[in-house]
């Protein structure tokens, strides 16, 4: 498999955004490339951390991973006033810088959650308890989760 194939895969996330003035929430899609998180990007993140600005880390992550999104922005006239027209917001650094940091943080949180592998079944849950073991009791009174003690028994005879 080519590295370019790994880097080109795109995942789509949906983010709920509260509506204006208590209106219904809107769903915004965000496409990102998980394969773009490389050691080169990790080095850029380290440099941003050393600078002491968390926003720089977010900016490195977003500019590296973002493939597209369903955001629009107002078209402004020569005096900076909205014309009433909208344009699709791109993923250039200049366009990303116009998006509120809280929304960028929401995107990064969703990417982090999406990137985690599924938890193993035998791992302790967040509440600290082990998952309940499911068992089915057979007609002879033994449970399917119990280990057989009769070594001479053939499969299916329990």
Summarize this structure as a short list of keywords or feature phrases.
alpha+beta, two-stranded antiparallel ribbon, 32% helix, 19% strand
Summarize the structure.
The protein is α+β, with helices and mostly antiparallel strands. It has helices at 3-8, 39-51, 54-65, 93-96, 101-115; strands at 11-17, 26-32, 66-69, 72-76, 82-88.
Please give a structural write-up.
- The protein is globular.
- It has 158 residues and is an alpha+beta fold.
- Helix 3 (54-65) crosses helix 5.
- The protein has one domain (3-115).
- 32% of the residues lie in helices and 19% in strands.
- The chain has a 3-stranded antiparallel β-sheet with strand order 1-2-3.
* Gap from first CA to last CA: 47 Å
- The Cα radius of gyration reads 25 Å
Q: Tally the beta strands.
A: 5
How is the main sheet built?
A: 3 strands, antiparallel
What fraction of residues sit in β-strands? 15-25%
Helix content: 25-40%
Count of DSSP helices? 5
The number of domains is 1
The average pLDDT value, as a whole number, equals 78
H/E element sequence: HEEHHEEEHH
- The order of strands across the largest sheet is 1-2-3
* Shape assignment: globular
The residue ranges in which pLDDT falls below 50 over 5 or more consecutive positions are 131-140, 142-158
From the helix content, strand content and strand pairing, which structural class follows? alpha+beta
């Amino acid at each position: 498999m080519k590295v370019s194939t790994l880097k080109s895969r795109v995942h789509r996330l949906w983010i709920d955004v509260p509506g204006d003035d208590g209106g219904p929430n809107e769903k915004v899609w965000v496409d990102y490339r998980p394969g773009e998180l490389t050691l080169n990007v990790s080095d850029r993140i380290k440099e941003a951390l050393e600078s002491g600005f968390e926003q720089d880390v977010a900016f490195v992550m977003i500019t590296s991973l973002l493939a597209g999104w369903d955001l629009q922005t107002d078209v402004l006239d020569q005096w900076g006033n909205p014309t009433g027209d909208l344009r699709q917001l791109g993923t250039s650094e200049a366009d990303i810088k116009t998006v509120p940091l809280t929304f960028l943080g929401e995107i990064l949180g969703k990417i982090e959650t999406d990137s985690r592998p599924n938890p193993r079944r035998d791992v302790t849950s967040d509440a600290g308890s082990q998952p309940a073991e499911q068992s089915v009791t057979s007609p002879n009174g033994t449970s399917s989760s119990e280990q057989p003690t009769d070594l001479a028994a053939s499969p299916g005879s329990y």
